Structures are given as C-alpha cells and as structure tokens.
Amino acid sequence: MEGDLHTLKGLAVSLGAMDPVGKEEINRIITDINEENKFMKIGFADNADWMGSNPDDDYYSVPVRNREDQPLGLLYATNPDDILRNMIDETVLSGVLVTEILDQNGMVVAGNAGTKDQEKVREVISKGSQLPFPMDSQGNRQQMAVLIPLEINNWYVLSVFPQSGKRDRHIETGIGALILLSSGLFLYFFCRQYKSINENQEALLELANRDSLTGCRNFPAFKKEAERVIREENILSYAVWYCDIKKFKFINDILGYEEGDRILSSIADLFRDYGEEEALFCRVSADNFAGLHKYETREEMRSWFHNLVEFFQSRELPSYKTITIELCMGVYCMEENDRDLSIERIVNRANIAQKHVKSQPGNQFGFYNKEIRNKVVYESELESEIDRAIRNREFKPFIQPKISIQKGNRIAGGEVLVRWENPRKGTIPPGLFIPLMERDGKIVKLDRYMFEVACQWLNSYLKTGREPVNLAVNVSKIGMLRDDFVDFYGRVKEKYQIPDGLLELEFTETVMLNDDAVFSSLVSRLHKKGFVCSLDDFGSGYSSLNLLKNLPIDVLKLDIMFFRKSTDIKRERIVISNIINMAKELQIRTIAEGVEYVETVDFLTSAGCDVIQGYVFAKPMPIEAFDEMLLKKKGEALIPEDIRV
After folding, report:
1. Other CB atoms closer than 10 Å to residue 522's CB: what's the count?
2. Residue 378 falls within a domain, yes or no?
3. Any residues with CB less than 8 A from the CB of 164 and at least 6 apart, and which?
4. How distant, in Å, are the alpha carbons of 2, 218, 552 from that of 280?
5. Residue 35: pLDDT above 90?
6. Backbone angle region of 157, left / alpha / beta, with phi > 0 → left and psi within -120 to 50 → alpha
7. Which of 39, 253, 384, 400 has the fewest other C-beta atoms within 10 Å?
8. Which domain holds residue 223?
C-alpha cells in the first residue's frame, strides 16, 4: 500500500508541474495511464467534486498542487475490490482467525469478522494499545483480538481469534500463521508493486518531461537540459529565443480551440523539423515556445528566423485561408557572466525582446537590450492598470473635426478618438496603450465603450434640434470578427435612436482577413442597419486596388503621411488625383487625413477630395469642446492655417 501511495505522489507532482493544467487535461492523462494499469484505478477530483464523494471508496488520496503551491484538487486511487478482500480472507488457524480493516472511528472498511464490541475497539484505538484484548463477537462468543495500525489512511488491522481450552496452541499456531501470512502478503505486494512501477515508469517519465499537447519538451525539462549546456559548453556561442503566435487568443476565438491546438502542434513540428539535429526547445505555456540556438553572428540568427518563417508559411493549414498566422521572436545573446543566472531569468530577457517587437506588423524578430527592457517594464505597468482604468472611465473621448472642402470648408462631422487620462502618469497617447490592448483582446471592450459614449453624445446633440453631423468611430480587427459584432453595434444605435447615415465605422485596410467575401458580407449587414462604412489608412500598408474593386465601402480615407514619403511631389500628386477620381467613379467619398499645410488643402480641393481631417483645420479636442465649436461655427467657413513648428 505504501508503494502505491508513493506512485500516486509521484504522479501528483508530475501533474502539478504542468502549466497551465486543468481538470479536463488531467483526466485525459489519467485515462491514458489507466488503460495500461492493471492493478489500480486512478482518478482526479477538484475541491468541489471531492467534497461530495465518499472517502471510503478510495484507498489512497494525495493533493495536487501547481507551481505556486496552490491546491488544484486531489488525486485518488482504488484497487479492485477483491484485493483487500483476498488479503484479509486468507484461511488461517483452521479458518477460525478472521480479520477486518477498520478506520480511525472503528468502522469497518473491509472484512466480515462481525465485530460487535465497537466501543471496546474505539477505546483501544484511543489508547494506541497493540496488546491482545478480550472482546465479544457474534453469538456472544468470547474472542481475543489484536489491533495494529496500518499507517495508511489512519486505518487499522483487527485480527480476532477464539478464546478456548486450546488457547495456547491457537495463539502459538496463530502467531506463526500471522508471520507466514505477513511474509506472503509482503512478497505478493512487493512483486505486484514492482511490476506496476515498471509498467508506469515510462509513462510517468514521459509525463514529467513532455508537453502533452505538442509532444515536445515542457519547460521544466528544457530548463534542466539548458542549464547543463550552459554549464558544460561555450556559453558565448548560444542564444536563447522566445517565440509566440501573434494574437493567438483572437485565433482561438475565431477558429476554435481545436484548430488552435493544431496550429500549436504545427509550430512544435516546425522547430523540430527545421532546427538542427537534437534541437533544444520547449513549449513554455499556451502559444509560447522557447529554445537554445547555437550561432556565430547576429545576422545569422536573424536569417535563421526568416528562413524559419518561410518554411512555416510553406506548410498548409486550413486556417491560412481565413487568418494570417504571424510569428514573433525575441532573442537574448548570452554572455560569460550569465552562467550565474537562472534559466528563467535568461528566458525572460528573450521574452522581453519578443514583447518589444510584437506590436509591429508582420512577422517580427528582435534582440534584447537594456533600452528595450525599460520600455517593456513601462508597458507592463500600463497593462496592469488597464482594467482599473476602464472601470474608472479614465479613457476620454476626443473628436477631430472633419471639414468639407467642396462645400466651403464647413464642419461635416468628426472622428471619435480616445485619450487615456491616467491620474498618476498624466495623458497617455493612444500609440502607447492601443497596441497593448490589441495584444490581449481588451481593445474590444474599449471599442464598444467609445462607440456607446459617441452615441450618447450624438443623441443629446440631436435632441437640441441642431443640424445633424456625422461621427466616425474606429473598429479594431479583433472586434470586427466577434460573432456579435453587427448585433451589438446595431442594438446600441437603435437604443440611442440615431438616424441612418450618421454613424460611420472605420476599418483599417490591414484587416486580418484574406477572404474579401467575408468582409463584403459584413459591410452589407452593416448597411442594412444604417451604418456608413469607411476604409481607413488607405496607402499606409498593404493597399491593393482589389480593396476598391471588391469591397462595398462608402468612404475611402487617404493616408497623406504615407504619400509625403515620396521624393517626387509631381508623381505623388498624380497618384493621389487618380485614386480620388477612381473613387468618385465608384461612388466612394474620399477623406484625406493627417493634412497639415494650406498648400495641401488647395491641391486636394482641386483634385476633388471631399473632406479633410488634420491639424491644418483643427486638432483632436474633448467632446465638450467639439460641441461648443459646432455651436459657434454653425454654417461658418473655417480658414486653414499651416501648423506651427
């Protein structure tokens, strides 16, 4: 029994070392073990399940704790019913010796000795005595009994034999028989346990060192092997990398966890197949992988990553048809004095480099340095405050006016923007916190909050009887693909009684969809609910004329800052003019954003652009200031002014 208990404790430690681990995953592993285990049925119960179970049904139980020593539940094991029965029903002393197993309260766990004097048994248990004592059994026969603690589950073995004229012979024979029985049982269980341990040893070792989903090393096994390499080899020729899949939570939400698991297994295969022989890597947790790579130059390390990405993209996964899967890797090049650092700290530095480049578009790669560390520490501080900031309404709506340059430079509406008024750090620009919120999916909550605030204000504004204005609100890539996206925005619009055509939803042209049909269907559903749809940042990234040809959008927003990068102003203006003319023929309105100079306003007016948004007319302002501006400038032409440098 002690051997079974040690086996169970070893399994509990292995399960607790997995991170993260849940009840379903533990039960799946235990099912696999039970199929190969002939002598023991193993199970797992979390705290809620265990409280409702019968402890007498399970011979052994040990706690399962995670790496932080927090309880996850109890691992329990039960032998087949006949094991204990056979043990205590051995025919000894001509069949007159009977045995029971009792719990600490004197209640029968197994056996059929028919103990009658339970008060006597409880008294002996309380005294801790192991001397023979008289007791009554069924039929009021006088019996002699010996109670010996098992030291397993607080159980006791009660042996009862008759007190008669042959008492001495019985006792003498009984003692010899008990010794023989004990020796036989010891030998039997030793052999059984030896066989059981041999059968489970391989499974337990595999469980302790392998990630159950991908089959690669887990983090504890990686740490052990990496520390050996660092200790024995030239540390200067090694780098530690940390890699994950960008927006993996979003991928799970859209494609489902089954497809997400397939992608993780494919990533593990990638590192296994593409890496050098016996490549040392592991799955740390979720979509996070880490590894040790031998290199000569940093450029060689960078090339290795880009070749890795190409190799991965050459593989076929069904998800590629819907979502572009991008990898992000950070690298820490080891130094001689790193031998004294724990592998966790070294991996964390590579992770810091990964986090620094993760917000940039496409597959990304970066090396660790102290500047990156300081930046990531600051970002981590911001991340820790985001939930509180949402609850406390620290995110404030700002509006940048949109000016209709074909209708006398009059205000046509505005774009709703967001600023974070942090009570400790002051105003935080969106360029800092938006990428952080996109990374963990919190951007959806912010999108919806800002949209409702905009609807509240527009509802109040329209009730005053003033001329209607258009409000544009940004929509994140993640929020756009939520199942309830159209229903939520339509429901809020209806709640605040906003007329059709006044609310504009802006989608970035770098949306993660490769299938235009999906986006077209989404826009059509929004049109039916009275929304105007615009394509934002056209020209800043992966622009394609197919976007204009295939998507039923209403408004095209030109990124003037992108065009200004050209060295030939004449060619630049030819491109812009033709895009505007093409949009007109497709009955798409055009807005130029980021305009800063009067000269640009004059050109765009002559080119036929409909609306300008930029500092040349007005900066983003609090929503109250925008309301006041509409009141003061009612029907009045605004005069453009060059920005002050």
Report:
1. 20
2. no
3. 170
4. 37, 11, 50
5. no
6. beta
7. 384
8. 217-368
Report how far apart, in Å, the C-alpha atoms of 211 and of each of 199, 289, 461 are.
20, 11, 58
pLDDT at 526: 95
Tokens found for residue 48: 């809620």
**Angstrom distance (rounded) from CA 324 to CA 141:** 83
Distances (CA, A) of 177 to 145, 155, 171: 15, 22, 9
Could you tell me if 557 and 593 are in contact, meaning their C-beta atoms sit under 8 angstroms apart?
Answer: yes
Task: Kindly state whether residue 171 falls inside one of the protein's structural domains.
Answer: no
Return the percent helix, strand and coil in the chain, to nearest 5. 50, 20, 30
For the record, the structure tokens of 112 come out as: 């059929």
Whether residue 562 is found in the same domain as residue 415: yes
Same domain for 362 and 493: no
Distances from the Cα of 611 to the Cαs of 24, 393, 401, 580, 601, in angstroms? 56, 32, 10, 11, 10
Indicate the helix (H) or strand (E) that contains 578: helix 569-585
Q: What is the CATH number of the domain that holds 267?
A: 3.30.70.270
Distance, CA of 281 to CA of 223 (rounded, Å): 10
Domains contained in the chain, number = 4
Q: Using one digit for the tens of pLDDT, what is the confidence trace for 41-84?
A: 777 787 655 444 444 455 677 788 776 667 778 877 776 555 66
DSSP class of 513: B
pLDDT one-digit tens code per residue, 121-168: 888 888 776 677 777 665 556 677 887 887 677 778 888 777 654 444
The verdict on 473 and 563 lying in the same domain is: yes
Beta bridge partners of 474: 506
Sheet holding 41-45, edge to edge: 41-45, 71-78, 60-65
Per the model's pLDDT, the better-predicted residue between 314 and 34 turns out to be 314
pLDDT score of 165:
41
> What stretch of H or E contains 127?
helix 118-127
Partnered with residue 612 across adjacent β-strands are 403, 592
Neighbour-count burial for 569-586, b at 16+ CB within 10 Å, e otherwise: eeebbeebbebbeebeee
Q: Which two tokens stand for residue 588?
A: 């798409």
Q: Are strands 327-333 and 288-294 parallel, antiparallel or unpaired?
A: unpaired
CB atoms within 10 A of CB 552: 14
Between CA 155 and CA 103 the distance in angstroms is: 5
With beta carbons less than 8 A apart as the criterion, state whether 583 and 589 touch. yes
Number of helices (H) and strands (E), helices first, in the chain? 22, 24
**Torsion angle defined by CA atoms of residues 342, 346, 347 and 353, in that order, rounded to the nearest 10 degrees:** 160
pLDDT tens per residue, range 157-193: 888 777 654 444 445 555 555 666 666 666 666 666 6
pLDDT digits (tens, 9 = 90+) for 368-404: 988 888 887 788 888 889 889 988 999 999 999 999 9
Instruction: Name residue 173's amino acid.
Output: T
Asked whether the beta carbons of 285 and 20 are under 8 A apart, the reply is yes
Let me know whether 108 and 72 are in one domain: no
- Specify the range with the lowest mean pLDDT, choosing from 24-33, 307-316, 347-356: 24-33
- Upstream peptide bond of 423 is cis (omega within 30 degrees of 0): no
